[in-house]
């Protein structure tokens, strides 16, 4: 099993837009469930080398280590980058042992 943490910068994404994205995209790709919480993010723009700070949403989900799980995560990230014109969605992946 793999635990994914996805970091979504929300400098220009409203609460309503986030709610719609979650309902339309995240839930359809992760129907068994996920956890989302608010955070404050900071990152360096690789082009300008300027430090940016923005409110952030973090989604944590545990999935079987399968191509389908990887595809679901990639689809969510791609949809967010496209819909909200984001450069990236931060991601960490860790092997975990878990049960539900």
Give the arrangement of secondary structure elements:
Layout: E1 2-9, H1 15-29, E2 35-44, E3 51-63, H2 67-84, E4 90-95
Helix pairs in contact: 1-2
Write up what this structure looks like:
With 100 residues, the chain is of the alpha+beta class. It has one domain (2-95): Alpha-Beta Plaits (2-Layer Sandwich), CATH 3.30.70.120. 33% of the residues lie in helices and 37% in strands. The protein contains 2 helices and 4 strands, in the order E-H-E-E-H-E. It has helices spanning 15-29, 67-84, and strands spanning 2-9, 35-44, 51-63, 90-95. Strand 2 and strand 3 (51-63) form a beta hairpin. The longest helix has 18 residues, at 67-84.
Task: Identify the notable features of this structure and list them briefly.
100 residues, Alpha-Beta Plaits, four-stranded antiparallel β-sheet
Which series of helices and strands comes N to C? EHEEHE
Instruction: Tell me the CATH topology.
Output: Alpha-Beta Plaits
- Which strand order spans the largest sheet, edge to edge or round the barrel? 2-3-1-4
Low-confidence stretches: none
What is the name of the CATH class?
Alpha Beta
Describe this structure in a few short sentences.
With 100 residues, the protein is an alpha+beta fold. Helices cover 33% and strands 37% of the residues. The mean pLDDT is 95.
